[in-house]
Amino acid sequence: xxxxxxxTSHSNQTIKAVKRLRMRKAREEEGTFVIEGVRHLFDAxxxxxxxxxxxxxxxxxxxxxxAELIEKCRASGATCLxxxxxxxxxxxxxxxxxxxxxxxxxxxxxxxxLDVSADKLSIVxxxxxxxxxxxxxxxxxxxxxxxxxxxxxxxxxxxxxxAVRASMGSFARIRxxxxxxxxxxxxxxxxxxQVVGAHLEGAVDYRQANxxxxxxxxxxxxxxxxxxxxxxxxxxxxxxxMVDGVDSLNLAISTGVLLYQIRxxxxxx
Length: 269
Ligand code: SAM
Hints:
Order of helices and strands: HHEHEHEHEEHEHEHEEEHEH
Largest sheet: 7 strands, parallel
Bound molecules: S-adenosylmethionine
Strand order of the largest sheet: 7-6-5-10-8-11-9
CATH topology of the largest domain: Alpha/beta knot
Radius of gyration: 21 Å
Number of strands: 11
Number of helices: 10
CATH architecture of the largest domain: 3-Layer(aba) Sandwich
């Protein structure tokens, strides 16, 4: 039960702290991020993410799903606070705000903890810049059961509101790892599985690639593509054909095409 009245002030310390998490610097300092929406929060709770603070509008407890979520959050030890609609709109920064917003602890995995056993498909994203692309890739990876995403080099933040939102809850099931290019090279040298790189000048048509066994798909950055260094760690560089005059496919789209081809090759679906 909540004993306090709903928070109605935008200058409440907790509200200000949650709004601060819009900034990457604040997220990195605190090691937390914001998850919006009942459905995405269920995904997070089910996947064991630790929620610290949960904001909700009291009138929404009339919705069974919201009431169930708040109950689960309380049981997990999160501080659940009632807020006014106006405050909720300020936190969500949208006209049609989500009715439950939570602060969760970030979860990142070490490269050495990467589970790359036979049925696992992993993705390496080099210097990805666009959080919308990252969220879309997480959503697609989740759809094909590829739960490891390794962010190589300096990348956008997987815990930004844009990336989390674009993933449509899939971020909760993805194991994100961050690594420098050098560390990835060292790790790769000690791993016997296949790394397939997506490259505009790849020698192999993506439908002919050898994708059997434990596999990592390496994707290049939006601007410059796959670096020569990362390309050299790949067993094969594959290309998706395009008609003359087209520069390239969008990063998230090409990742989706390749993930589905890899799964089709192995009869996964
Ligand atoms: N100008 C960049 C380049 O030279 O690679 C374009 C980068 S593209 C927007 C981002 C990434 O998507 C590429 O690095 C590659 O990994 C993948 N990609 C896009 N189109 C592709 C294609 N037709 N074949 C293979 N990979 C592709």
